[in-house]
Amino acid sequence: MIWQNWLLIMIMLSSLVPGLIIFSLGESRHGLRTSLNLFGAITKMVLVLVMILGIHQGHSFAVHLALLPGLELVLRADPLSALFVTLSSILWLFTTIYAIAYLEDSPNRSHFFGYFSLCVTVTIGIALAGNLLTFLFFFEMLTLSTYPLVVHRGTAEAMAAGRVYLIYTLSGGLLLFLGVVWLHNLVGPVDFCMGGQLAPLVESHGKTLFMIYYLLIAGVGVKAALVPLHGWLPRAMVAPAPVSALLHAVAVVKAGAFGIIRIVLDVYGLDTAGELGLLFPLMLLATVTIIYGSIYALRQDNLKHRLAFSTVSQVSYIALGISIGNPLAIMGGMVHLVHQGLMKITLFFCAGNIAETLGVHDISRMNGVGRRLPLTMAAFTLAAIGMIGLPPMAGFVSKWYLGLGALAQGQGWLIGILVLSSLLNAAYFLPILYGAWFKEQEAEWPDDSGMTGPLECHWMLVVPPIITAVISLLVGLLANSNLSPLAWVRFIVSAGYGL
Amino acid sequence: MMGLLLKNDCWLIWPFVLPLFGALLSFLFKQRPRLPGLIVALLTTLSSGVLAWKLVRHGVGRYDLGGWQPPLGISLRGDGPAVLMVLMTAVTGLAISIYAGGYFRSRIAKVEDERRHIIQERFFWPLWLLLWGALNGLFLSADIFNMYITLELVALSSVGLTVLSGKPASQVAGMRYLLVSILGSLSFLLGVGFLYKAFGSLDLATIQAALSFSPPVAMAMALISVGLLLKSALFPFHFWLPPAHANALAPVSAILSGLVVKGSWYLFFRFWLGFLPLIGDGGNAVMAALGGAAIIWGAFQAFSQQRLKMLVAYSTVAQIGYLFIIFPLTGAGAGPAASAVFYFAISHSCAKAAMFLAAGTIFLQMGHDRIRDLAGVRQLLPITSFAFALGGLSLMGLPPSGGFIAKYMYLSMAVSQDRWWLVLLIVIGSGLTAAYIFRAVSHILSPKMVHGQGQVVVAPCMEWSALALALVAILLGFIAPLPLALLGVTG
Amino acid sequence: MSVSPTFVYGLTGLFLFVVGLGGLISCPQLLRKILAVNIMVSGVFLFLVTIGYGHGVIIDPVPHAMVLTGIVVSVSGTAVALALACRVHETFNMSDLLKRRTRSNDR
After folding, report:
1. What CATH number is given to the structural domain containing C76?
2. Band of the pLDDT at A452, cuts 50, 70, 90?
3. B424 and chain A in contact, CB less than 8 A
């Protein structure tokens, strides 16, 4: 079954090779660069599709490489990794299209797209990681491949933000590294498998496992922007819009959240984690982050900053779902990985459009934008309503399962938190929508590109948010169909926890 | 005759003799020393490769020079660690040689002061090949007096290389380097005398087999250790290193930082492991404390430097510390500790040499190496900038790189032996390394556009050889089982 | 207990080594440092020579061979040091290494 092994490598190479070629291209080779980007993104999607079909038919995919005697780098496709891989590769395609138009005529594009491709390769590596070491391996690489994107603008502010980003993520990486080494020392290489393999050690090494757990969670928590480790996220907003989209919806924050899922479910296992009393503190942390992020989002006037704090809040739903520890809640958390990605990327695309086309960055100046950019704002509205969690949108589906899980677990107070969070979401999104659609334009746009006609700005800027918005609508509306993310998540959870 | 020369163990002398021969040759062909220099560099690399292959196939080789057996004769011994170091020298040395070819060509092509550059090149090749041969001899020696001779050869040729740049600062640094080196060698020699007095043999294996505690042995241990520590520039003996390394010509900086420092460290490691039963935990703890101080102090110094080459030189001071904090970890068996520290040494050699080569290219192109003003280098020298960043990646111990593998082994051993203060040290050290590396890399890879910098004057082979070395450091992150298998051949 | 001549020679050798070391550390002038190194070298050689007499009646030739080789090495070392000292002297018009410390750190 050689093709199964090659498939995973091909999925990695489909973005790595174009990335490396793009690095070596001259600045002026737009055509070739664009074709390479799109070729890579589409190839990756096709390959991922093949992989999902394969998994569905019961094939298994794995690649091994010995790093040290007894220590392997393992790529393995299980249903959970397929979920993340699919999300990343689809969103990468749209982000690439968007970025090509967004960065038109800006300098250093070869560099940008090179790192962009590298970043996606590494994210796929995180998704496919079959053991803790491989996860660490790609997790650290993600820091390095995203740093050049964060500082892409090269301004003093961008460099400062990059420094903060590095300090946070490299420190997190060190903690994670220490945790992994310690755990390896205790049990040998740790493969990801549902339920974990640490149960026999609870009696004898409970304290050690306890400490390792916090090292690991702190390590991934930096990228997942759990309060108080979230400080880098709002500052990293100086990056260009496609980078913010990538950071928030596809790569960094998602990798952190994915790491939490892996550590709790596949390294420790729910039962072991529960036995050690590790779930409740995580639940509290997630709750605090949800509320904190929402309140801070409310206080921001800069649109991208508001979206950033919204991410802080929303991504913690994933951690919350895992920490409730009930299959229904886990479903809610996992499916939010996809839902939040779709909605948040739409919002960032739209914010980028508004900034790019009109020069508007602040919410207070957005009055009347809806009439100037109807398509963009329509997409924004769909995604924002989804974020708030009104039925039947995607955000509602996530929260519904979270709530069901919380009730089943006897944690009724979490319903209150979910409601409060939804109210806060509404409080920071609805005024934007109201102002954009129903208020009159107050002043001239600061920097109107003047594009009119059937499309309000470059078609490659408008189409991606519309598509992602429609997808985010569909995954909510059709949550019960067999092809929805929810169905796939149900498949994952029922395989592991007998839903 | 041919059969004798190609006999198994005979391969041991080629990596030693070929460069010495090449040194003579390039000295005689003084009109064009580059060609014989490069050819011999290639041949030496090949013979080192063959040596490694023979080691894997046939086990440890031993060769008695002139057919004289120890204790009277001098013998060479190619076990795993020795051959691994020879191989490391070969890979790094070949890249440096190719770089040096382009470096001198580019400098001679810059018309001003052409004559000076020609003379520099004329002396560079003989000295460098002499140094290469001496290093290989040092690694392969089984005889402690022979080690002294090779140590002196290494010292004299590297001092010659240091002062080659002709800068006033390099002359003073070279003078200090020479005096420190001679002091170290003399201390070593006196220690050798004491050992001979105690055991009546100069063969290291014989001595270590017969080792027992007595006052002369204690004296010998102290003298040899101090002498080698001086030469290895372990904190607080590092004072001579940064000015000597930073003010030399670019290929010379790479040679000194990547290879020469490892020579005396290698001897120290071998002696110390042999003495270990007599030293106990106290001595190991002292070494680790000095190593830890080097890591912290070197990193802080590197962070506060204004010049790129000084930063890289202080980084060497810090990284040398890692070579010494391994000693407390030898408690649970020398094998794993040796794997970790040798892997660290070879990764550091490739990465650090790549960084110094890249820094030299940047210096040649920009005419300065002030870190603050390096924005725009990336546009002019993308390959070089990338090489520097990749080398930095390995130094930081981030994946995928040899440094990551080494750091993993270090941490794993420290955790399993419950040496939590070492764990803390390694973690803090990694953080500090990242801080100073990124201080440089953020300027070099700065996206700021700078216009009107003029033509690229550096030869392409300078850029590519640095990148190749950096890529070797990255590759070491994937092929660890191979070098470690080579290292493990000791019987 | 009678003190054997070899013991006295050996001790003298070590004494010379220490004297030279003191000179090397304390003398600022380059030439004196080089001389101090040579005194250390002589001390080491004297010590080595006495080792040859340590093992009974037959004189051990190995330390003598070591000293012969060592002399060659130390002469070359001294030559390099002297040449370098001349250079430093020409460049700075003085032979004091310590006072140059501040200069050596710039550029």
Report:
1. 1.10.287.3510
2. low
3. no
